[in-house]
Amino acid sequence: MTFSRGRNTLFSGLHFSVQPGQAIWLQGKNGQGKTSVLKLAMRLMQPDAGVIRWGSAFDDGGAPTYIGHLNGQSVDLTVLESLTFSARMHSVRVSVEAVAMALKRTSLYAHRNRLVHSLSQGERRRLALTRLLLNKSALWVLDEPLDALDTASTVLVMRLIEEQVDTGGAVLMSSHIPFHMPNLQVLSLTSPTAS
Amino acid sequence: MSFARFQAIVARDLLSFRRNPARSLFPLAFFLIACSLFPLGVGAETNTLRQIAPGVIWVSALLSVVSSLNTIYLNDYIDGSLEQMCIGQRFPIDVVFAKTVVHWLLNGCALLLGAPLIGLMFGMRLHSIEIMSLALLLGTPVLSMFGSLGAALTLGYRSSHVLQLLVILPLCIPVLIFGAGAVSAVDAGLSAQAYLSLLGALFLFSLVTTPIASAAALRSSS
């Protein structure tokens, strides 16, 4: 893939694949295009050259779940409404029990009827991450998932990622916070001028 | 494109507008205020008012729609919901349809309720009010659809307001002309059918063309 912003070529000749059971940690300096790679993987943007394929290994799970810089929640909805809505956008049916289980896992169950508007940044991030438990996508694409999270939540996210990989799912993520996990593969973005 | 997603977005947006009544009623309030300022400026002469009524109502309707375009996509764009809705969609037409329908319900449909009141205030005849409502029913969806296109095209630009005006005003002018023309024709004792047919044609034209264009614009904005 090659991708430019304006006249600036962010990267060229980038080639990688994500297999089931794999976690890839995307590394690179600020402004080097980590978010762009993740958005390209989600087909939210088009590369200047090259193709992105969602392989058949991921067919069962439907579209990958993407947690971007923005949490993607309307502030006018309650925690429950927000989750139900994003599940419907993802074309998955979720039961009330499944939502309750997921919210208990991310310690948001007590806040289920609060408006997103009244949640803190960290709670909003946790709500966004709760989607991972409900959508059951085979591929997770996470852009700085640990942003705004406290230590306990950080540990939880790492455990969720491990579980996803153990159950044959895949994760493609960026993070500037050091990440410790067995079988974590690092993909470094280097600028075309440097290489 | 799926009907379930369309329904979910419409229900969600109506819920969020119900939680912000002030924001949802703004277009109607703007329309009523704009219209009722005219008699103060022009004078309360019954014949003059009756003559300018269709024009006043249509111009106010157009301005009210244009001033509320940023409610269509901007909030969802800022908080990232729009990105989430577009995942896995080559053309997110269901998103466009849902957003446009909600915009029309809160604008065009609200104006449809307010316009007869303004018509009475301006001394319009009952038959003229009927024709005007019919013209608004055909014309306001066109304004919402072109408006949605303008809003989608300018999403993410800093001076989007100015660009929106430049993009959509030329497209909306035919609606204004035929809409006001229909009522004037009835007032002059002629048939309004030609004008209404043209409005209907515009409605069908925008129904076929704008959703795809808006969806393509949404795709390229993320």
As for the CATH topology of the largest domain in chain A, it is: Rossmann fold
The largest inter-chain interface, given as chain pair and residues per side, is: A-B, 27 and 23 residues
Helix-strand makeup class of chain A: alpha/beta
Q: Biggest sheet of chain A: strands side by side, in what order?
A: 4-5-6-3-7
> How many H/I helices of chain B?
10
Task: Return the CATH class of the largest domain in chain A.
Answer: Alpha Beta
Q: How many alpha or pi helices of chain A?
A: 5
Report the radius of gyration of chain A as a whole number of Å: 17 Å
CATH superfamily of the largest domain in chain A: P-loop containing nucleotide triphosphate hydrolases
Classification by helices and strands of chain B: mainly alpha
Terminal CA distance of chain B: 19 Å
Shape of chain A: globular
* Strand tally of chain A: 7
Instruction: Count the domains of chain B.
Output: 1
Comma- or semicolon-separated keywords:
heterodimer, A: 195 residues, alpha/beta, Rossmann fold, five-stranded parallel sheet, two-stranded antiparallel sheet, 7 strands, globular, B: 222 residues, mainly alpha, 10 helices, 0% strand
Word description of this protein:
The complex is a heterodimer of chains A (195) and B (222). Chain A has a five-stranded parallel sheet, sandwiched between helices. In chain A, strands 1-2 form a two-stranded antiparallel sheet. Chain A contains five helices and seven strands. Chain A folds into two domains: 1-64 and 137-195, Rossmann fold; 74-135. The mean pLDDT of chain A is 86. In chain A, 31% of the residues lie in helices and 15% in strands. Chain A is an alpha/beta fold and 195 residues long. By secondary structure, chain B is mainly α. Chain B has helices spanning 3-18, 21-42, 46-67, 70-79, 81-86, 93-106, 108-121, 126-153, 160-187, 193-221. In chain B, helix 6 packs across helix 10. The radius of gyration of chain B is 18 Å and the shape is elongated. The A-B interface holds A 39, 42-45, 62-64, 66, 68-77, 81, 85-86, 88-91, 115 and B 2, 4-5, 8-9, 12, 15-16, 19-20, 75-76, 78-81, 83-88, 222.
